[in-house]
Amino acid sequence: MKKPLLVILALAIVLRLVFAFTYHEVWWDSGVYIGMGKFLFSYGANGLWEHIRPPLLPLALGILWWIGLDPLLFGRLLEIAFFGGIVGLTFLLAKEWFGEKEAIWSSLIVALSPIFFYLSFHPYTEIPSVFFILLSLWLLKKHSGWAGLSLGLAVLSKFPAGIFVLPFAIVLIYARRWKDALLWAIGFAVPVVPYVVASFFAYGSPFATLVAAQNAISGALGCNVIRYHAWWYYFWVLVSSETVLYLFAIPGIVRLYKTWTSKKLLFVLSFAIPFLYLVQMHCRDYRYATLFIPFVAMLVGSGLVWLYEFAGKSRRFWCCSLAIGTLILLSFCMVFYAFNEPQAPNLIEEEYFSFLAQHPAKGEVWVSNPIIAAYTDQRLEKMYYPIYNERVLVEFSTYLEEHEDKVGAVLLENCGGGIICPPDEPGCVTKTEELIAHLNTNFTKVFDRQYGRCWYKIWQKST
Q1: Could you tell me if 48 and 12 lie in one domain?
Q2: pLDDT in tens, 71-101
Q3: The pairing of beta strand 364-367 with beta strand 407-413
């Protein structure tokens, strides 16, 4: 058992380390999490704060920054470490629910998942949350209290992980494991209750951050306009972006039905409930598929092993199928990465993001893109938050008029999504133009560059 797992783990981690120290663009959410970490560990003097975000990853990145490490590089290495845990836990869970051969296929599919590989180089919440979800499933059999604690950490990594409360509750109640259910609930409460209590005192409601996050998602242009996807999107993602091997999930489902035992109830619920929840959400993103990819991989593994049994359990067939499968998985992984991850920086954008590091501003710094927080330790104010629209724009314009002496710099760009007006608010475009005209008149423009359709502008207080 140990040798196949160690080989797959080595393949997953070494492959990522080969790319870990090359160029990777900084994504929007990474900038937010790094900014939040700086904010927490500087008591608000540095970085920025977004209350709609889960706190666990910002805490980890903040610790890295606080001890003097680069949160971008070491955040990337942290993601790779968590992913190693995902591969190992996928193997252990698949072995328990299906068998060792299924575990080999399942962990191999996850190890070479294009989406997981792509996310491994960006400090995002998906990989840590999936790690804690799988850890909680593994711990439930013998350590229900620790299982609850682990799921609580998953929720504080990514709020939608809370949907996994249902599989745990159903299984524990169905099995009449009342003591384990109590211990699980206590463990879950240990990290979650302090957070909701803090939310109550900070924002007036224990669920204020969750409600605000849902409202932001409902209004986000990326979900509703720019990257809107149909209900069948996740089926397409699994076959086109992941691998055609996911088609073997179909015989895997048939085999699951034919070999059904009650011990597989937790597996079915852990796959079906998150999958159905994400399919019905109007905001569908490839990143969300990480919540169910390990479980689909187990179905694929089961289907492939069923094929192996039909082939007469030939050792040659087993070795050849693993080798061919690895090549197929690796090719999908590398093609997805090559097409989606820029191999060289946009020099104008990099100059814009790092401007404050070279030319610190005196006074408040207002930005339309939180990625800047990854490049500077200055305290940043958000003019895009929570959703850029006419109301937020009017509020900022009014603030400028009333407190112009406090503002040291304003950084705007139209490419990251921070100041894209909703299509149903024509007045927003006009007011954006008026804001730029006001900044041109009352501030000094110190940076003005164009790259394709994108422009990047920085104004500082006139001297």
Answers
A1: yes
A2: 999 999 999 999 999 999 999 999 999 999 9
A3: parallel
Structural domains in the chain (count) = 2
Q: What are 426-461's pLDDT values in tens digits? A: 889 999 999 999 999 999 999 999 998 899 999 998
Do residues 137 and 329 touch, judged by C-beta distance below 8 A? no
pTM over 0.90: yes
Backbone φ and ψ of 457, nearest 5°? -135, 140
For residues 92 and 9, give the distance between their C-alpha atoms in angstroms, rounded to a whole number. 13
Q: In this structure, what token pair is assigned to residue 368?
A: 């339309």
CA-based nearest residue to 355, from 363, 364, 365: 365
Q: Are residues 357 and 333 in the same domain?
A: no
Q: What are the pLDDT digits (tens) for 224-279?
A: 666 788 888 999 999 988 989 999 999 999 999 999 999 999 999 999 999 999 99
Most distant CA pair in the chain, distance: 82
Q: Where are the alpha helices (DSSP H) in 21-159?
A: 28-41, 56-66, 71-97, 100-111, 114-119, 126-139, 144-157
DSSP letter string over 235-281? HHIIIIII-GGGGGHHHHHHHHHHT--GGGHHHHHHHHHHHHHHHHS
Percent helix, percent strand, percent coil in the chain, to nearest 5? 70, 5, 25
The full length of the chain comes to: 463
Rg (CA), the chain: 24
The pair of three-digit structure tokens given for residue 343, joined into one six-digit string: 């191999």
Question: Do 231 and 366 share a domain, yes or no?
Answer: no
Mean pLDDT of the chain: 93
Token pair 């503002």 in the structure block, residue: 407
What is the distance in angstroms between the CA of the first residue and the CA of the last residue of the chain?
Answer: 70
Pair of tokens at residue 97:
């629910």
**Beta-carbon neighbour count of residue 260 at 10 Å?**
11
Of the given ranges (125-129, 366-370, 387-391, 443-447), which has the lowest mean pLDDT?
A: 387-391
Q: E strands of 158-264, at which residues? A: none
Residue 154: give the domain boundaries: 2-340
